């Protein structure tokens, strides 16, 4: 029998409890510093602030990943994590106070002193707690005995990973069993390896099973070699003996497969790998932001419609909205909405214009002075097109109806731009990663140059960078940059 490992933020409950206590301690001392020694909770104004800070701290604990990998962080990284943690709490608290209109009765000085004191207290205690944990891990290692089972070629790699200096270790490797097929050199290799490691090394045979069945073994770790069959019988033997089995394969530890998660798929227990795992809390926050942005965007779309719809219809009679089938999340198609900025026969004329496409390999379509745009035949003194279609494209007004797609859940505010069906058919395997997330109105490459980027592989690189490094703050940063890009009309065509 084995104790199930605690997952998620509860795994570091000791650090969480310490931070909760330190937050209130910092609040009390901050009150003493700029008021007078006493109980701040007796003052209704300060008691309210204490409750708000405490509640916001719990929200940040639930929805952020501040405690993730806390035992692996270096000292500077820990300081940055504490500062970011405190910043998120204060922003959430100030936003809440502003929404309920209690900002006039709150002390900004109290917030400031509390923030500085908490950062000092939390950073110091986190570092001390980690020092204590790492120092005691050596003695705790004597309380759990692990036997490593793998091939001769993977022994050193396995031991290095098990005893990594940046890992919290509460076990000791007390033996190695080799899975290699018996040969004339195996016995000598086992003797030499035993001398190097100073722990018993045995070939897999009845003697090794007997030793593990009658010796001190809490758990075994099987690192499955790629070139050897799955050790089903060995695992059955260990389960029969009641020994806990940990199992891994080299592939899932490859940096190209960054994350693995154990889950159920029907009746099967499976290891799931993905380019990026997002917590349920983060997904909820992203969707809530999409809904809020979608509602606001739809209201703005209605206002814009009143002004530009008559002009579009006069210049090019036909539907005001343009609907086009696009490829979305994981290849699922949907209808994307835009204000129509092109003549009705634009799609038919596209094939004849492909030679002027600025994007290599035709993976996307962009061209200067596109004649399909409504009113593009009208030029200014410098020969630039100044039609209504050019105007709404330069100002990105044509994109506003996509807020309808955001509310429907087809798209997100921030993501990767959805390709057309013909573009999708040209994608190779490395391009498909773009659609592993929900497409967005804006994204990384749009705020990094938009029309100036003509290399589709650069677009894919930027989109992959966004997916691998996604966090809510990155979405907010991209949205703010998008506003600046649209106002400055930089990169649009």
Which radius of gyration do the C-alpha atoms yield?
30 Å
Separation, N- and C-terminal Cα atoms: 64 Å
Tell me the structural class: alpha/beta
Q: Low-confidence parts, pLDDT < 50 over ≥5 residues?
A: none
Which overall shape is indicated by the principal axes computed on the Cα atoms?
A: flat
| Portion in helices | 40-55%
Give the SSE order as H and E letters.
HHHHEHEHEHEHEEEHEEHHHEHEHH
Count of distinct structural domains: 3
Number of helices: 15
Q: What is the number of E strands? A: 11
Largest sheet: 5 strands, parallel
Overview of the structural elements:
- This protein has 493 residues and is an alpha/beta fold.
- It has three domains: 8-138, no CATH class; 144-274, Nitrogenase molybdenum iron protein domain (Rossmann fold); 280-488, no CATH class.
- Helix content is 47%, strand content 12%.
- The protein contains 15 helices and eleven strands.
- It has helices at 13-34, 44-63, 75-99, 108-140, 155-162, 186-197, 206-214, 232-241, 280-315, 346-353, 388-394, 402-408, 421-425, 456-468, 472-488, and strands spanning 145-150, 172-178, 201-203, 219-223, 244-248, 259-265, 268-274, 321-327, 333-339, 412-414, 440-442.
- Strands 3-2-1-4-5 form a five-stranded parallel sheet, sandwiched between helices.
- Strand 2 (172-178), helix 6 and strand 3 (201-203) form a beta-alpha-beta unit.
- Helix 1 (13-34) runs antiparallel to helix 2 and helix 3 (75-99) packs antiparallel against helix 4.
- It is flat, with a radius of gyration of 30 Å.
- The protein starts with 12 loop residues before the first helix and ends in a 5-residue tail after the last helix.
- The model has no long low-confidence stretch (mean pLDDT 82).
């Amino acid at each position: 029998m084995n104790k199930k490992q605690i997952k998620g933020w509860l795994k570091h409950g000791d650090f969480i409890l310490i931070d909760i206590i330190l937050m209130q301690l910092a609040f009390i001392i901050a009150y003493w510093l700029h008021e007078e020694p006493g109980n701040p909770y007796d003052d209704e104004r300060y008691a309210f602030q204490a409750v708000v800070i405490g509640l916001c701290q719990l929200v940040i604990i639930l929805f952020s990943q501040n405690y993730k990998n806390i035992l692996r962080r270096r000292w500077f990284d820990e300081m940055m994590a504490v500062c970011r943690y405190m910043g998120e709490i204060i922003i959430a608290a100030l936003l809440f106070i502003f929404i309920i209109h209690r900002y006039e009765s709150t002390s900004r000085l109290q917030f400031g002193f509390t923030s500085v004191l908490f950062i000092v207290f939390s950073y110091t205690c986190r570092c001390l707690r980690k020092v204590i944990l790492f120092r005691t891990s050596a003695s705790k290692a004597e309380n759990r005995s692990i036997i490593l089972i793998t091939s001769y070629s993977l022994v050193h790699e396995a031991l290095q990973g098990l005893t990594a200096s940046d890992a919290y270790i509460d076990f000791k490797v007390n033996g190695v069993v080799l899975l290699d097929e018996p040969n004339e050199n195996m016995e000598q290799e086992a003797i030499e390896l035993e001398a190097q490691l100073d722990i018993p090394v045995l070939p897999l045979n009845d003697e090794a099973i007997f030793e593990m069945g009658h010796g001190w073994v809490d758990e075994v770790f099987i690192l499955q070699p790629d070139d050897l069959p799955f050790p089903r019988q060995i695992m059955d033997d260990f389960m029969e003996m009641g020994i806990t089995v940990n199992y891994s394969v080299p592939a899932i530890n490859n940096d190209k497969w960054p994350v693995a998660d154990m889950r159920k798929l029907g009746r099967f227990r499976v290891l799931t790998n993905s380019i990026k795992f997002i917590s349920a809390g983060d997904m909820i926050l992203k969707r809530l932001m999409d809904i809020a942005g979608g509602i606001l965007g739809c209201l703005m779309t209605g206002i814009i419609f009143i002004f530009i719809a008559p002009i579009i219809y006069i210049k090019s009679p036909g539907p005001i909205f343009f609907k086009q089938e696009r490829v979305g999340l994981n290849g699922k198609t949907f209808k994307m909405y835009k204000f129509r900025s092109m003549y009705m026969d634009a799609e038919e004329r596209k094939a004849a214009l492909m030679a002027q496409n600025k994007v290599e390999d035709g993976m996307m379509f962009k061209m200067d002075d596109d004649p399909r745009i409504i009113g593009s035949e009208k030029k200014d003194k410098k020969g630039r097109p100044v039609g209504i279609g050019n105007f709404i494209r330069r100002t990105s007004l044509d994109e506003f109806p996509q807020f309808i797609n955001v509310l429907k859940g087809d798209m997100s505010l921030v993501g990767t731009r959805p390709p057309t069906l013909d573009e999708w058919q040209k994608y190779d395997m490395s391009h498909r990663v773009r659609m592993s997330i929900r497409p967005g109105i804006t994204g990384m490459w749009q705020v990094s140059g938009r029309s100036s980027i003509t290399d589709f592989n650069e677009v894919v690189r930027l989109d992959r960078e966004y997916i691998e490094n996604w966090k809510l703050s990155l979405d907010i940063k991209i949205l703010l940059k998008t506003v600046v890009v649209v106002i400055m009309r930089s990169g649009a065509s």
